[in-house]
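Hey team,

Filing this mostly as a record. A colleague (T.K.) asked me to run one chain through the structure pipeline before their review meeting, and I want the input and output archived in the tracker in case anyone asks later how it was produced. No errors, nothing strange. Just documentation.

Input sequence:
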Amino acid sequence: MNKEKKFTIAHQKAFLRQAYPNGHLYEETPSSFFWKYSVHPSPLSGTYQFKIHYREGKHVDVFAIDKLMLCEGKKKLPHVYNTDKQHLCIYHRPSEEWNASHKISEIVPWISEWFYYYENWLVTAKWLGGGIHGGKKE
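Output structure:
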């Protein structure tokens, strides 16, 4: 049983505001919220907007806002839960790389890294970001 102290939704929103003051909280309820932000993964990268959907006691869901391109010959985005929704796979849920005892703000660099590897995938057609997705190591 996990005895780590879990952060409340108020704590999670405060951590995001403190770490990323340019982010935007919206559709807030007592037990959930959306947060919008953008990242620029490298000096040669574009800027990518994303939103986080957090429901207390659940996993963090991350979605790309702008329509992501597919690389030539591919029909799906790499390392996502759903291509149409652009629901990004940022961490391995079963191993609890992230859970409510961590700050949501800690995954923003992981999101930026996902977009970095996405840009590489557009050129190489290979996901070089590693990870486990769909039960298979990538």
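Quick notes for T.K.: The longest helix spans residues 108-124. The chain has a mean pLDDT of 91.
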